[in-house]
Amino acid sequence: MRRVVATSFRVALAEHGVVRVAGAYDALGALLAQEAGFEAVWASGLGISAARGLPDASLLTMTEYVGAAAAMQRRVEIPVVADCDTGFGNNLNVAHMVHEYEAAGITAICVEDNLFPKMNSFVPGTHSLEDVKPFVRKIEVAKAAQSDDQFFLVARTEALIQGFGVTEAVARCEAYADAGADAVVIHSKAPTSIEVERFLLRWDGRCPVVAIPTTYPQWSVDEAVRAGVSVVIYANQGLRASVSAQRAAYRALVERGGAGDLEPRIAPLSDIFALQRLDEWREMEE
Ligand code: SPV
Ligand code: MG
Q1: How far apart are CA 264 and CA 243, in angstroms?
Q2: What are the distances in angstroms from CA 53 to CA 50, 162, 215, 233, 257?
Q3: What is the rounded distance in angstroms from the CA atom of residue 112 to the CA atom of residue 87?
Q4: Which of ligand 1's atoms lies nearest the C-alpha of 233?
Q5: I need a surface site. Which of 135, 137, 241, 286 has the fewest CB within 10 A?
Q6: Average model confidence (pLDDT) for the chain?
Q7: How far is 96 from 61, CA to CA, in rounded Å?
Q8: Confidence class of residue 279 from pLDDT cuts 50, 70 and 90?
Q9: How far apart are CA 106 and CA 86, in angstroms?
Q10: Closest ligand 1 atom to 48 CA
């Protein structure tokens, strides 16, 4: 039995008109995303933090994030795009981060123009952004630090999240692309896709655009593609589905005083064994 070898994100992007990316926080989630037909997995900072019962606020270390992303990538053939927040510090941290993620077999990472320590984009309140110049330098340092041409750097602006408007968001993304970013994320917490669509109307296509439709879930993949999006990340739907499903199961066990009612509504153990590829492991014993 060989170890799983993954496609690089760059190849996935070249092969698909749109890359649909599912947020996950562990290898089991990554396997379920792959099984559902996603082209890539998002190693979500929010999810990895939440799985440890912690806020998405730069609390875990880079080592913990790269370990979580690598654990996912070791089990799936689709590429993992690792959420690297602010790059975990200054330019030196960014270079070290690229070395570590590449060495861990991750072919795409995303850094955002929040200041370290960051706070999740959907937490109410405003936060300062990194100035354009130092963030551009982080991008240049990251690109100079990669040793494999396949490595893919996504730069994300939080300009719309912080209310700086479309003009600022476009200017930032142009500067990030010119500094070497392979794609840009235009993140928004608006209740509709309108501000992202305004951004896309002004985008000259100098690199692919990534969207994260969390607060505007009615925007379909087809609509996003028509508007000019190349990558759609469903960052936290899996995490939220897990919370709903586990909560309902645990409550039912306590309320019903047993597991009988629950049994037909939960995955059988044979399903778990199949996800673990148990048959292939056992073949080695014979
Ligand atoms: C994450 O999943 O950690 C993200 C996406 O960065 S968001 O939570 O929308 O900021
Ligand atoms: Mg994040």
Answers
A1: 19
A2: 5, 26, 23, 23, 27
A3: 8
A4: 5
A5: 286
A6: 97
A7: 13
A8: very high
A9: 17
A10: 3
